[in-house]
Amino acid sequence: MWLLLIALGCGDADKASDDSDDTGNESVSDDGGSDGGSDDGSVDGSDDGSDDGSDDGGDDTSDPGPAEVHILDVETLVDWLEAGDDLLLINTHVPYAGEIPDTDVHVAYSDGAELVAVVGDDLDRRVVVYCKTGPMSEIAAETLVAAGYHEIYDLPEGMAGWEAAGYALAE
User: How many Cβ atoms sit within 10 Å of the Cβ of residue 103?
Assistant: First the structure.
């Protein structure tokens, strides 16, 4: 059986499934095509179309495929907030310990039903989740992706990273 698994791993990459890595970060699941992205550990959800063309050659639709959690850094969030970008900023830390300025709502990371209710019906709404240091927002982000949302961003540095970058928290 191990030989079969090894053979699958060494064969056509388009036929192997890679639903998650050892860190728990989601990657694009196999849906018959290649994700076309790099394997550098970052998750940006983009596909620059620079694959070698050796995929199934089938339909070239705009279907984004399976959703995934996008990783966001503090400076990008600052840029989005300063530009007035349309996003929903959710503090998922429990217990409440302050928040990043312009936070829209505080919802416990473990309350999946409330997270979905707050985000609403727009599966393409840009949502940023954060907590104090990362683990709680990661769970919240994965919950939202599992519910079918496509534009879910996790700020793994959280409030601690926000402060370390020189920004103040709102009280």
Answer: 17
Which of the four pLDDT bands, split at 50, 70 and 90, describes residue 37? Answer: very low
Contact (CB, 8 A) for 79 and 122: no
Average pLDDT of 52-71? 62
Q: Please name which of 60, 69, 57, 68 lies closest in space to residue 14, comparing C-alpha atoms.
A: 57
Q: How far apart are CA 128 and CA 139, in angstroms?
A: 13
Number of helices followed by number of strands (H, E) in the chain? 5, 5
Q: Of 141, 132, 165, 20, which is closest to residue 71 (Cα–Cα)? A: 141
Residues shown for the chain: 171
- Contacts with 101 (C-beta within 8 Å, 6 or more apart), sequence order: 81, 167, 168, 169, 170
| Measured distance CA(136)–CA(152) in Å, rounded | 14
With a threshold of 0.90, does the pTM exceed it? no
The β-bridge partners of 127 are 88, 152
- Token readout for 29 is 């699941």
Q: Tens digit of pLDDT for each residue in 94-110? A: 999 999 999 999 999 99
